Amino acid sequence: MAITAFPVLCRILTELKLLQDRVGVVVLSAGVGNDVIGWILLALCVALVNAGSGISALYVLLTCVAYVLFLVYAIRPLFLWTLRKTGSIQNGPSQSMVGLTMLMILASAFFTGIIGVHPIFGAFLIGLICPHDGGFAIKLTEKIEDLVTVFFLPLYFALSGLSTNIGLLDSGITWAYVIGVIAVAFVGKFVGGTIAARLCKMVWRESFTVGVMMSCKGLVELIVL
Prior knowledge:
225 residues; mainly alpha
C-alpha cells in the first residue's frame, strides 16, 4: 500500500497543468523513486516467497541483479544505437522499432518469470532502459496505448475479477481490517509526504498537495496482488 500509482499521478498532474510547477516536479521525481524502490522490493519478496530455501533465494536475487546489469550495460547501448541508426529518436519510433520494443518486453517478462521473479518486473526494466531523448518514450506510449487500453486492460480486469471473491468480506471484523488498512495507508503517505515537503521549506499548501498526490492509488496495487 506504500506504492504510489505513477500513471495515475501523471494523469492528475497533466489535468491540473502542474507538470512544470515545482510541486509537480517534486511529486513526479518522488513517484519515480518510490516506484523503482517498490518494484525492487517486490521482486525481492517474490523471490524469497517462491524460493524453497535460502540458497535458492540468494540465487534468484543474484541472477536478477546480473540481469539488470546486463540490460543496462549491454542491451541498452545496443538498443540506443539501433534507434539512432533508424532515426527513431529524432522522427519517432517506426513500426519495426515498436515491434522490437514489444518483443524485448515479452522476452524480458518471460525471463524474469523463469528465474522466479514476477514477469511484470521484467517488462518494467525494459521500460526503464527506453530513452526519453526526442520524446521517444512518449511517442512509443502513444502508439501502444490504444492497444493496451482497448485489449489488454479489459482482459486484466476480467482476470482480476475472476480471482477476487468479495464474499469473503462477510464479517464486521473483516470490514474493520479493510477500513483500517485503507486509513493507515492514506494517513501514512499523506503525513509522510507533507512533513517531508514542509522540512524542505515548502509552504503548507504545497506540502499538503505533495502529501495528497503521493497517496495516489491505482492499478499498481492490483498488479502487486
